[in-house]
Specification:
CATH class: Alpha Beta
Number of helices: 5
Strand content: 25-35%
Helix content: 25-40%
């Protein structure tokens, strides 16, 4: 009987630990939240959704580029999101349009973002393309 209780307890603990991990319904709001905060120039809020080791570089770039005044994200739309088989990594594909003053020419790019599951939440680990590609490079 003790063995059955122990197995049940271990299974219950494992389920509680993995809750949300691999869950597309938790990933999509994280993706939307990052893009929404960036669109409305809430860069400190957006940085909270970036992995801790890249937050400082992300915020420093926003300040250096004067993005609070010069970056205007005009549109974004989530095109695809997939969770990798290991359940701790995900890739999102988003279409982003923006312009950075003094240019008034709008740029559009398909942005590939890598998210990782850490401490019970999805965090942005890198982007390929878009206005944040340099400091959030997937090659870093």
């Amino acid at each position: 009987m003790r063995a059955i209780c122990l197995v049940f307890f271990l299974m219950l603990s494992a389920c509680a630990t993995l809750k949300g991990q691999g869950d597309l319904e938790l990933l999509k709001p994280a993706i939307e939240n990052f893009h929404q905060r960036a669109r409305w120039k809430d860069f400190r809020g957006a940085a909270e959704l970036v992995v801790p080791e890249k937050r400082a570089a992300f915020l420093a770039a926003r300040e250096q580029l004067r993005d609070d005044k010069d970056l205007n994200i005009t549109d974004y739309s989530l095109e695809d999101a997939t969770i990798q088989p290991n359940l701790t990594e995900a890739v999102a594909v988003t279409r982003v349009s923006w312009f950075r003053l003094p240019s008034a020419s709008e740029q559009s790019a398909t942005v590939r973002s890598r998210f990782v599951w850490r401490d019970g939440t999805w965090l942005l680990d890198g982007q390929d393309g878009g206005p944040f590609a340099t400091e959030l490079s997937l090659g870093k």
